[in-house]
What does this fold into?
Amino acid sequence: MFEKGLLAGKRILVTGGGSGLGAAMGRRFAELGAELIICGRRLELLEQTAAELRSALGGKVTVARCDIRDGAAVDAMMDAVWREAPIDVLVNNAAATFIAQSEHLSFRAADAILAPTLHGTMYCTLAAGRRWIEGQHKGVVLSILSTSTITGRAFTVPSAMAKTAVLAMTKSLAVEWGPKGIRTVAIAPGAFPTPGAAGQLRPEGRDEGWAHRNPLGRAGEHGELANLASFLISDQAGYINGEMVVQDGGAHLRSSGAEDLMQWTDAQWAKQREGRAKG
It folds into this structure.
């Protein structure tokens, strides 16, 4: 679809890049010539993913172990990354969520979602932006959001709040940082199934025919998201700033994605809370 060197010369940091959509985007970036840095909390997973990418593609892939919920840790990671060279692109992919009745959320449970999804994203964005501005270096921030920013979403309220706040950040910084050569863009994916997300968002008992009710009759493929991300961070998208692109097959035009949960019984919710506590 793209020229092989579309991202050649780009140094890209992907948070949550060790698995799932982060790893899928990272692979595509590397295929298109980028130098890749993947960040996360689980060093063993990061190193395994990096080794697989280096073996398959032969490009430069390095890892950065970091808990983005800790602002000081984010600053230390950015300092270490910048010692070699500035990054050109930050992809805010790391996030957390699970389904829950909001009245049963503890403060700790809500913070477990807000900390990486909102605070971690903000910490990484500010840390990169500050260094870009000080060094007069152009940059791109791509944040992976959700269609809950458009529809809201029952039973994942902290995630919907966090993603909507990041969209506000994307729009606000587009104006503030655009004159400094920094673009901020976002993607709102629909259903792009991953093992991690499936366990948190689609436990046993949820509607199994959801994908067929998408207007296109299917879930998204990881390569489709990776291709859109590659375009948005490339120079070919240089006049796109402050925008969120929805990629969900039109699903949000029909449903917020939580309607089936309105039919759950108290027993089903109790089983879900019990399973989460054990996990």
About this structure: The radius of gyration is 18 Å.
